[in-house]
Write a structure and sequence with these properties.
The complex is a heterodimer of chains A (493) and B (656). Chain A is mainly alpha-helical and 493 residues long. Chain A has a domain of 221 residues. Chain A has 20 helices and two strands. In chain A, strands 1-2 form a two-stranded antiparallel sheet. Chain A is globular and about 70 Å long. The model of chain A has no long low-confidence stretch (mean pLDDT 91). By secondary structure, chain B is mainly alpha-helical. Chain B has three domains: 266 residues, no CATH class; 278 residues, no CATH class; 100 residues, no CATH class. In chain B, 72% of the residues lie in helices and 4% in strands. Chain B is globular and about 105 Å long. Classes of the chains: A mainly alpha (493), B mainly alpha (656). At the A-B interface, α5, α6, α11, α13 and α16 of A face β1, α5, α6, α24 and α27 of B.
Chain lengths: 493, 656
């Protein structure tokens, strides 16, 4: 079973989704329990991988390759290395936590669980696929359940947000499909296999390579999201129910950043080198612009959503330097952001359920009334603003350090984002927790034991990576070094 | 290793109090006090080790790899060299006294245990900062103490002013931290060492970049030590409990900037242009803050500006290349300024307000507080043989012996020394002498508060003696800090030839005249009510006085040219995001919608069956899903895909 573990991890949730359809609609406890069992199984799989994963092994581990559509050379090809292992672990953790947080969903549990498991399987498939065709299929599989999850269980403007999300992503998908097909036709023999494409290279002129890279770039940039393709994110987050926001920010956004590392960079190393400056500029824009816009928000959730845009800027800066330190920072930032911002959305949701408002001006002084909640909010806010000792700092520091030698001025400008970030997050704390409490919240209750335990594992990861980043960096670093060698970046820095 | 226990013990106390604080209730301070006592004893044992010849050149250390991948390695270490051990003792010993004081001072507070939890976290961070032998580790601890400062300033967060002050402190110091961070990045990039031992061994490694790197590090120190122009947060920080002001915002954390500068001094000496910046910043800060202190009526504000001024005084010494003089003043200042704050706390506890013009005559009702306050005040004024006298003279000597011969530094330092004696005497007289002007039911504080006062008073009297001439300047020999050998040319180690030793009679007389003059004038003006200036001159000086009393309007200036534009930009960008970026997106979406509506109409009329088929596929998901009408979107994009594929094929045929 261990040889096929990756396929188990993909098809357990996909098969589970189908199985949910056959469960009796009225028995909500059974459906919820079944969903939890499947996500726990996925997490168990991820933990098994953790035990067996050898970061310094060459190539892929638990690789599986089966001809799927032999006529056009499509394979079912999955494998694990340092690029996707951290994200699989992240998906496993957040998959369980977001499902547990779904107890607030009370309508149409059956459809919800079906779509949730479908989403989970799609994301795992996207991270594990080593065949462009397969990758594309899973990429699209993710899109559909997300659309319905926002569109059915979302807030008042859910339909607008869902359609916006769908169109945005699909527009990117179209460009990605074009680029994938170009890769296919430009390779001899024609292949969709990512490792084969890397090895053979694509026989395209420089200009066409540039366009193909750009096609991938837009598709992935929308997912990251990179300015100016980011405007679906705040809407989607504000309307999505809490657990879906957690998955969206925690896992879904990482598909974009991951795809750069898995596909764009290794297949088009020369273009990637030339694109460094683009990443740097866009990264700085994401950090500063995202931070400024976050500062102007009056909606709790929207503020956190825009802070995601700023955080993703650090991922881009990490890419931009084309250094091992930068890549490590970018990759770790994806993991850390998943944990921290996932937790932030949980915390936002916990307040929203009690007060039914997210308007920041409605709060104030809650710190005295709900001290445990206040402590949690302070903790994750500090992690978000990159307080040293917590995980966000490690990755942001490495991203900046990695970008610095290549783009010193842009890095120098980007560090301003650290002050802006501290600005809006402290303003957030002030508006929610400090000052005088309005009378109407006199009956507010503090976090339940269940809610606390949802956050505890995330606190654990935040502290662990903050204090002891060696282990998490060890997972990814050898693979990133190989990638850098392939691109011709600076693996010594 | 025992060394790592120095910060870990308070950290353990923090963890215990966070989880069990509510259950421990009024016993919470016991946990903190016990843990910190452990750190005190360990610090003394480190001091003992340093006396041992075996550790004279290899001080106790503990190291671990924090980050290790590829060619990158960040090896953190704690190092107990003389400088660090000195700082450890200052922090733990004075800190213990202040913590004991807090037991009484914070009694009855609803978040009593939380207060001691935060204090413990502060000690853990501060001791890590002090012992860190790596700039990144120092940076981590540096922001850690900033966090504790934020939490403790905003401790009474129901007060909007306290909430705002905490935020302001964190943000202002973070502006400074950016410099520190960039300095670290620059050092790393140019091949410099990030450990202080490495920095001392190879200060020239970064070549011509040393000065810039040093200035960037110093910018961090400017933020933390509240130097001009980042000083604005410290007066506001007085919103926190007074024990916090004494510990963090007078004795320890704000001194971290001075400590960092002394720690990284080899780098400053390798790029001596940086010392110009240090000296100028220190001189401007020390004088300008002292003038403000003369005009304030809020007791804690007087002390806050006094702290800024004294930190500038230390920086001035460092800028003259005399790291020892700066550090010496740091140590004595920690004792007498902490004492001043604790006395202020005791007074505020008794009269329930902070306005010195409404106090008076308190010496009779609060004899211990009054006596210790006067000791601290005279120590700061520079009355021999109290602590401040020795270190102040060392600083004046450093300025007099400035290798660059900047005479204005000496005169600024001298003028500040006079002003210092003046304003602290003014405060003392207004509070303790004369007749009571406010409600006079004040009484002496409880023993948990007065014992620390007496304890610190002993320090304020005697701590300066550790470098008395009769000890052969023992403290200077112990610290063994680098000094600036010649004008801008290299460094040497201070072994008795450095600044602060050449106490010529001229300086001694100057020093005494300044202290005596300041005290005397203040006594004439506030004790005897003699107007010092003729009426006409006073009226002419009114506008100047108003500018100074309003703190040179710097807060208002920042509000107008920084904060408001900043928020305006933020709102403008958000509007742009909504109307510009998202407007374009919605426009495109709307256009697509009309196209697909049209196509949908065609579909319904012409290929009805296809639509029914699509509806059937999605139909089982429920009526609501069908209502979303996704069919048209997919169709529309299908066309796009097919079209794109055709284009693509043409493209490949054309180029490949």
């Amino acid at each position: 079973m261990m040889e096929t573990i990756l396929s188990w991890m993909i098809f357990l949730p996909l098969g589970g989704a189908v199985a949910v359809l056959f469960l009796p609609k009225g028995n909500e406890r059974l459906i919820r329990g079944f969903g939890l069992a499947v996500t726990l199984a996925v997490l168990a799989g991820a933990l098994l991988l953790w035990r067996g994963f050898n970061p310094s092994a060459a190539g892929f581990q638990w690789e599986q390759k089966i001809a799927w559509i032999p006529m056009i050379g499509v394979h079912y090809h999955v494998g694990l290395d340092g690029l996707n292992f951290p994200l699989i672990l992240l998906t496993g953790i957040l998959g369980v936590i977001a499902l547990l947080a779904s107890h607030t969903i009370t309508e149409r549990i059956k459809e919800y669980t079906f779509l949730y498991l479908l989403l989970l399987g799609g994301m795992l498939g996207t991270f594990l696929a080593l065949d462009l065709f397969l990758f594309y299929v899973f990429w699209e599989v993710v899109l559909v359940p997300m659309y319905f999850l926002i569109g059915i269980w979302g807030g008042p403007r859910r339909e607008y947000a869902a359609i916006k999300f769908f169109l945005y992503t699909l527009a990117g998908s179209v460009l990605m499909l074009l680029s994938i097909l170009t890769c296919y036709f430009a390779s001899t023999p024609h292949t969709f296999s990512i490792p084969a494409l890397i090895q053979q290279g694509v026989t395209l002129s420089g200009t066409v390579q540039w366009w193909v890279f750009l096609g991938f770039f837009v598709a992935f940039a929308i997912k990251v999201p990179i300015f100016p393709f980011h405007t679906w994110l705040p809407d989607a987050h504000v309307e999505a129910p809490t657990p879906i926001s957690v998955i969206l920010a925690g896992v879904l956004l990482k598909m974009g950043g991951y795809a750069f590392l898995r596909i764009s960079f290794p297949i088009f190393p020369e273009v990637a080198r030339g694109f460094g400056i683009v990443f740097a500029v866009l990264g700085a824009i994401n950090v500063i612009y995202g931070g400024f816009v976050a500062m102007a928000q009056t909606d709790f959730k929207k503020l956190v959503a825009y802070s995601s845009v700023a955080h993703m800027g650090f991922v881009l800066l990490g890419f931009a330097g084309l250094t091992l330190t930068g890549f490590n920072g970018a990759m770790l930032e994806m993991f850390n952001h998943g944990i921290i911002t996932g937790a932030m959305f949980l915390v936002v949701g916990m307040l929203y359920e009690r007060t039914h408002t997210r308007e920041l001006s409605a709060f104030g002084g809650l710190g005295a009334k709900v001290p445990v909640y206040g402590g949690m909010l302070i903790f994750f806010t500090l992690a978000s603003l990159g307080l040293p000792g917590l995980s966000g700092f490690v990755s942001e520091f490495l991203a900046l350090l990695g970008c610095f030698p290549t783009h010193p001025v842009i890095t120098g400008i980007s560090v301003l984002g650290l002050v802006i970030g501290a600005g809006y997050f402290l303003l957030l704390l002030q508006r929610v927790l400090l000052g005088q409490m309005p009378e109407k919240w006199a009956g507010l209750t503090d976090l339940t034991v269940r809610e606390i335990w949802l956050l505890v594992p995330l606190i654990g990861f935040t502290l662990w990576i903050g204090f002891w980043p060696k282990v998490a960096l060890g997972w990814q670093s050898p693979s990133l070094a190989g990638l850098l060698y392939r691109i011709g970046g600076n693996a010594a820095w | 290793m025992l060394l790592s226990l120095i910060p870990l013990l308070p950290l353990a106390a923090f963890v215990i109090l966070i989880f069990f604080g509510r259950r421990l209730g009024k016993f919470s301070p016991l946990v903190s006090l016990t843990a910190l006592m452990g750190s005190v004893l360990l610090s003394f044992s480190m001091l003992g080790l340093l006396q041992d010849a075996r550790f004279a050149h290899t001080p106790p250390t503990v190291a671990w790899n924090w980050i290790l991948f590829g060619g990158r390695r960040l090896t953190f270490a704690l190092l107990a060299d003389p400088l660090a051990v000195t700082m450890c003792l200052v922090v733990t010993v004075i800190g213990w006294g202040i913590m004991l004081y807090s037991v009484g001072y914070m009694k009855g507070d609803p978040r009593y245990s939380r207060f001691f939890a935060y204090l413990s976290l502060f000690f853990a961070s501060m001791l890590t900062l002090v012992l860190a032998d790596h700039l990144v580790l120092l940076y981590i601890a540096w922001e850690g103490v900033g966090l504790c400062s934020y939490l403790l300033i905003s401790f009474w967060f129901e007060k909007p002013a306290a909430a705002a002050a905490g935020k302001k402190a964190f943000l202002t110091t973070r502006v400074g931290d950016l410099g520190l961070l960039l300095g670290i990045l620059l050092l790393a990039l140019k091949g410099g060492e990030l450990s202080f031992r490495g920095l001392a061994a190879h200060p020239e490694a970064v070549g011509p970049w040393a000065a810039l790197a040093a200035v960037l590090l110093f910018w961090g120190a400017v933020g933390k030590s509240a130097q001009f122009p980042l000083h604005v947060w410290l007066p506001d920080a007085m919103e926190g409990p007074t024990a916090v002001s004494a510990l963090i915002h007078a004795a320890t954390m704000v001194a971290a900037g001075v400590y960092l500068t002394a720690r990284a001094f080899p780098l400053f000496l390798a790029g001596p242009e940086a010392l110009q910046v240090v000296g100028a910043t220190g001189a401007v800060t020390t004088f300008f803050a002292a003038t403000i202190a003369c005009t304030q009526t809020d007791l804690k504000k007087i002390l806050a500006y006094s702290t800024i001024s004294q930190l500038g005084f230390m920086m001035l010494a460092l800028g003259c290349g005399a790291a020892f003089a700066g550090m010496f003043h740091l140590v004595t200042h920690a004792a007498f300024k902490a004492l001043l704050f604790l006395c202020a706390g005791s007074v505020i506890h008794a009269v329930h307000h902070q306005d010195v013009t409404r106090m008076g005559g308190l010496l009779r009702s609060m004899p211990i507080t009054g006596a210790t306050f006067l000791i601290a005040a005279f120590a700061m004024a520079g009355v021999p043989p109290l602590a401040g006298f020795w270190s102040k003279e060392a600083v004046l000597a450093a300025a007099a012996g400035d290798p660059l011969g900047r005479g204005w530094l000496l005169w600024t330092a001298a003028a500040t020394a006079g002003l210092t004696a003046f304003y602290i005497t003014r405060a003392g007289i207004l509070i303790f002498l004369g007749s009571p002007r406010g409600n006079g039911q004040a009484h002496e504080s409880s023993w948990t508060m007065t014992v620390p006062l007496i304890f610190l008073a002993l320090g304020a009297v005697g701590i300066g003696w550790i470098n008395g001439p009769w000890t052969g300047h023992a403290f200077e020999r112990f610290l063994h800090l680098p000094v600036w050998a010649a004008a801008g040319h290299g460094a040497a180690h201070g072994t008795g030839h450095g600044a602060g030793v050449g106490h010529g009679p001229g300086l001694l007389i100057l020093s005494l005249v300044l202290a005596g003059g300041g005290i005397g004038l203040a006594f004439l003006r506030y004790g005897l009510g003699v107007q010092l200036l003729p009426e006409r001159l006073r009226r002419a000086g009114q506008p100047i006085y108003r500018v100074i009393a309003n703190k040179y309007f710097i807060d208002e200036l920042y509000e107008a040219v920084l904060i408001r534009p900043f928020l305006a930009i933020s709102r403008a960008l958000f509007r742009f995001d909504q109307r510009g970026v998202d407007g374009a997106v919605n426009g495109a979406g709307l256009a697509g919608l009309w196209v697909s509506r049209f196509k949908g109409w065609v579909d319904r009329r012409i290929v009805d069956g296809a639509v029914n088929g699509a509806a059937a596929v999605t139909g089982w998901l429920g009526a609501g899903v069908r209502g979303l009408q996704t069919g048209w979107v997919q169709h529309y994009l299908l066309i796009a895909v097919v079209g794109g594929m055709v284009l693509l094929l043409l493209l490949i045929r054309g180029w490949a």
